[in-house]
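To fix ideas, we reproduce below a protein record of this kind.
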Amino acid sequence: MSKVFKTNDQSTNLLSVSYKELLKALPIKTQITLTERLNGPGLKHFALHWSLIFIFGFLIYLKVPGWQIIMVPQGISIVFLFTLLHETVHQTPFRTRWVNDTVAKICGFMIFLPVIWFKYFHLAHHRHTQVPGKDPELEVEKPKSMGAYIWHVSGIPTWAGHFKTIIKNTFGYCSADFIPKKVERRIVKESRWLVLIYTIAFSSAYWVGLSMLFWVWVFPLLLGQPFLRVYLLAEHGLCPYVANALENTRTTFTNRLVCFFAWNMPYHTEHHINPMVPFHKLPDLHVIIRDQLVHTENGYIAFTNDYIKKIKKAV
């Protein structure tokens, strides 16, 4: 059978090589190098990312001229901790397990997303990417009209989903196909601790008049969420419902700033082909497989324009 691939969002004709075969074809030394985990790159990236959050937050706290505008980059900086949380689920940003676990808890707390629950949600997504009825990400339908698109990008459904998950888990209603029975108690305990900590934090801020907690953290998160929604929609949006990661996932070519905040996750096909490749090695994997990529896009604006055009055409 021929091994012919097409790029730039052209569909393949009976794609004959799965991503697993593609990985097996790599030299053993290359496979080992690509999946080597290190603490250094992750800690450096983490420090830079959080430095920006602290700098933006301090400027907002001081109410420097234009501080209201600074809430936008602050929100982007915080909400894109989701991509780091997503990576810690795979234990790849750092070599040391407890560092991955600690960073995951910090990120989950900052974006109101329970870590243990998300871990099993996300691993199920990787096992069944774009498989209807099995991929939990498909439980929320991709927008198919302009009204649905605006509602989706607003981030309101996402926040409603986050808080619904926390509340349901808190009351013990955390059963789902992707959650093993043995971890349900841990998920319930985690959500109860989150509710307690959030209650103490926001109650204390209210009573001492610390409104800055809202302006430095919560409101920026609301402003940053639409940027994350647009970014995430490009990962699998408009891709076919098939099991092959070369066909069901998109790599988006973008600038270094976006790659920085997203921890190189715009290389998303590369990530799905081998989730064990750390974020700092994804560009190397991209160089190896770029001729086999099926779905690519030159930036998020281009993808958004394409998505909206297809929505309007379908109406």
